[in-house]
Amino acid sequence: MRTASVLVTGASGEIGHGLIDRLAQSGRSIVTVDIAPLEPPLARKVRREFTGSITDKWILERVLAEFEVDLVFHLAALLSTRSEFTPVTAHEVNVEGTLRLLEFAQHEGESHGRPVVFMYPSSIAAYGLPDLDTKTRAGRVHEDEWNTPSTMYGCNKLYCEHLGRYYARYYKQLAVDTPPGRVDFRCVRFPGLISAVTVPAGGTSDYAPEMIHAAARGEPYACFVRPDTRIPFMAMPDAVDALSTLASTPREKLSRTAYNATAFNPTAKEICEVVVQAFPGARITWQVDKKRQAIVDSWPMDVNDGAARRDWGFAPRYDFRRAFDEYLIPTIRERYAA
Ligand code: SER
To answer: How big is the CA angle at 210 (ends 205 and 215), to the nearest 5 degrees?
Structure first.
């Protein structure tokens, strides 16, 4: 008998940390795949850890042989800044890796007779606005507007949203024997995420979390975007909530396969002000990296997440003030004090 389990790829990444805590609390058997070994406190919550790349087909074969997976959180990805330095590797991991996982989920579903729920975090990087004027005029963009990303990561995410929709609705549509069930693909298009317990690696919205963590460590920070830069953000507990809530929503309530979700959208200067208030010794300067700035400028200043609110009741707990006062600052303080 194979054990009924949930599979998490990219488990040791930022979202993985919070998500595994949440899944472990619910008592689920968790199987992970990550390129790096999990830290011991995380590893203890997991039934089986596979260390290796999602592009390695044998790892997924082993998971399929041993576990009856009914839910996948496919978090593994190379983020936007890193992907610009190694676009072909980014495509391999972000696109080919996702294709493998979708095939894996299809096969799992066929082997146990129930569609596998496939949770996929996409990103505001799926948008691409041509200039600042347009960005200002566009305001809160809807899922289907401005889908012209300018980064490899954004192209990868947008394409994988479509791949997921294909697997959910049209997979092998011309086959004589249509598969008994299709992958139940569900995607949250996230804004920049800010966690109190981890620092991101290789993203372009990283200036916000980097600024906060540097101040808490008493280190100087040179912010790589202009003070007036504005994009949407969300605190990590809300991101984990969003994924868990969407995963457990009855299928018939969902009118889309990909949903915007957001919480607050301060400028870099507003973030800096709150950080300086919390850590009065913070030394924050501005040293704009024009190329990374151009990427952030191509992302919307806000997104319309009305569909997520209507269909599955998305309602973030943390607005800008509460995210800092009740989550980021106390948790980060405690972390660095320890
Ligand atoms: N935080 C991501 C990045 O900056 C965007 O999804 O790449």
So the answer is: 145
pLDDT digits (tens, 9 = 90+) for 149-178: 999 999 999 999 999 999 999 999 999 887
Domain count, the chain: 1
The domain of 256 spans 77-193+234-263+300-318
The atom number, within ligand 1, closest to the CA of 124 reads 6
**Residues 73-97: b if buried by 16+ CB within 10 A, e if exposed:** bbbbbbbbbbbbeebeebbbbbbeb
Residues 6+ apart with CB under 8 A from 225: 207, 268, 288, 289, 292, 293, 296
How many angstroms does the Cα of residue 78 sit away from the middle of ligand 1?
9
Position 314 in a domain? yes
- The CATH number covering residue 103 comes to 3.40.50.720
- Is 24 within the bounds of a domain? no
Q: The pTM is what?
A: 0.97
pLDDT at 179 over 90: no
| Nearest alpha carbon, ligand 1 atom 6 | 123
Ligand 1 centroid – CA 154 distance (Å): 9
Ligand 1 centroid to Cα of residue 275, in Å, is 21
Ligand 1 within 6 A of 98 CB? Answer: no
> pLDDT tens digit string along 69-110?
999 999 999 999 999 999 999 999 999 999 999 999 999 999
Dist. CA 87 → ligand 1 center (Å): 15
Count other C-beta atoms under 10 Å from residue 101's C-beta.
25
**Within-domain flag for 108:** yes
Element (H, E) at 158: helix 152-169
Could you tell me if residue 250 is inside a domain?
A: yes
Tokens of 256: 């889309």
